[in-house]
Structure formats: structure tokens, C-alpha cells
Amino acid sequence: MSAVSVTEDAGGPADPAEPLVVLDNVNKHFGALHVLQDIDLTIARGEVVVVIGPSGSGKSTLCRTINRLETIDSGSISIDGKPLPAEGRELARLRADVGMVFQSFNLFAHKTVLQNVTLGQTKVRRTPKAEAEERARALLDRVGVGNQADKYPAQLSGGQQQRVAIARALAMEPKVMLFDEPTSALDPEMINEVLEVMQQLARDGMTMVVVTHEMGFARSAANRVVFMADGRIVEEATPDQFFSNPRSDRAKDFLSKIL
Ligand code: ADP
Ligand code: MG
């Protein structure tokens, strides 16, 4: 694999016969709050799933259960055929298959951009430093911040920082990338530069779960829209179907407020 290739099967269409992430009847509570209710969701290799829904509907919690930042109470989650284990080395290994990009960029403030993108590779993957740096530079180029490698995060714009965060996640060669409102904290003029990187990633065949309010992105990049409300998946459809002909009242109500 070349240093800039980030997916095993670049460019391939989503293949429903190849489930990569499978959530089966997942339930989770926060105390009395039933935050995820009977969630069944299968994401195919190469598929881009956009998750939308009102604030508090459980979108972030859903993402966090997929990389096991949150435990679940019942049901099961598997990634590439392997059940997500509770703990230990197996968990660390499986978690490395899942890249995550948050609303707040979460870069290490006291490390340079280059160090941010090499650290996980050398510490977790035990990649030799020179190889990790070569890969990091290629990824930073790819997301358009190759000339910022020696700066510290605070010296970059929000859009640049978020692109570094994407490069950092990609450096671990994840099988699936989770994006939780990656542009919500950005000034408007920086949103597109991040969405364009995500669009390119989608075109290259990365399997992606994207929580976003950017409906233009959902329309153009998603294979499927999943609409959540009150901890449930209320509706799933292609973007065309969903935006032109939402079936549920909840989705109609939500769309009437944001479009
Ligand atoms: P969304 O991302 O769709 O806005 P979240 O998954 O963040 O929704 O939250 C869903 C619900 O769970 C909200 O009511 C939120 O207040 C609650 N919640 C989220 N995280 C926690 C937590 N760690 N402890 C208790 N309640 C939480
Ligand atoms: Mg959220």
C-alpha cells in the first residue's frame, strides 16, 4: 500500500454483501434515560451513512458506542466480523479500526502538527518514526495542510486544525471513520474546506458514519440517511428519498425547521 492510500479498497462502491459495522438490537441507558433504543444498523464496506436528528436524540452516543467510548447495556456491536469486546488488548486493537473526529478538534496542544499525526502510529502501532513521519506528511498534504507540519495547533485556523484531526485519524489506517458534527464548531468560511476533505474520502471508498447538520453534504456524499429521534432510528432512506419525501412526522417536522 502506498503512503497516501487510506483505504483497502479505494473507489469501490458500497457492497451490502459486506457488512463492516453491525449494531444488533443495541440498548443503552444513562440512569433513567433510555438513550439508545433497539438500534439495528448495518453499515457496508465503503458506505457513507449520514446520521441526522434533533439535539439530544442520541447521535453522539451512537458514535461513541461504535468505538466503545461508551458501553452498551444490551445487544451487540461488531466491526469487520469481530464482536466489540469489553476491554483489554482486543478492545485496543478493534478500537484502532475506528477513527473518530469530534466537533472540538482535540489535537494535542503541546505537540506540533506533525507530532500529532505521528504519535498514534509510533505509540500504538509501533511504526518506525521515519515511516510514521512519511505517512503523516503524505496525509497532511492530502488534507491540504502539508505546509503547516511544524506549527502548533493554536497557530492554525479551526478548519486547518480539523483537517489535521482527520489526518491524525487516517494515520491509524482505520476501517471506518466516525465524524461527530465535525464542522459545527467552525466559522462558516471554513466549513467547506473540511467537507471537501470528507467528500474526497468518501469518493476514495472510506466507510464513514457522519453526524452532521450539513444537508448539502448529506445529499451529495451519503449513500444513506439515518434519522434519529428520542434514541431510536425513526427512518432510513437514500438522501433523495429522505429529503424529497420523508415518511415520518418527526422527520418532516425536523426538516421543516432546518431547510
Ligand atoms: P445528540 O448527539 O443527538 O445531541 P447525545 O447522544 O449527545 O445526543 O445525547 C443524548 C441524550 O443523552 C441527551 O439527553 C443527553 O443529555 C444525554 N447524555 C449524553 N451523554 C450523557 C452522559 N454521559 N450522562 C448522562 N446523560 C447523557
Ligand atoms: Mg451530539
From TrEMBL:
Entry EC number(s): 7.4.2.1
One GO MF term attached to the UniProt entry: ATP hydrolysis activity
An annotated GO cellular component: plasma membrane
Ranges where the ABC transporter domain occurs: 21-255
UniProt subcellular location: Cell membrane
EC class name: translocase
CDD domains cross-referenced by the UniProt entry: ABC_HisP_GlnQ (cd03262)
The reaction(s) this protein catalyses: a polar amino acid(out) + ATP + H2O = a polar amino acid(in) + ADP + phosphate + H(+)
Sorted UniProt keywords: Amino-acid transport, ATP-binding, Cell membrane, Membrane, Nucleotide-binding, Transport
PROSITE patterns given in the database record: ABC_TRANSPORTER_1 (PS00211), ABC_TRANSPORTER_2 (PS50893)
Membrane topology term: Peripheral membrane protein
InterPro entries, sorted: AAA+_ATPase, ABC_ATPase_HisP-typ, ABC_transporter-like_ATP-bd, ABC_transporter-like_CS, MetN_ABC_transporter-like, P-loop_NTPase
Entry keyword annotation includes Cell membrane: yes
Keyword Nucleotide-binding: yes
Record-stated family: Belongs to the ABC transporter superfamily.
Protein's recorded name: ABC-type polar-amino-acid transporter
Protein source organism: Streptomyces chumphonensis
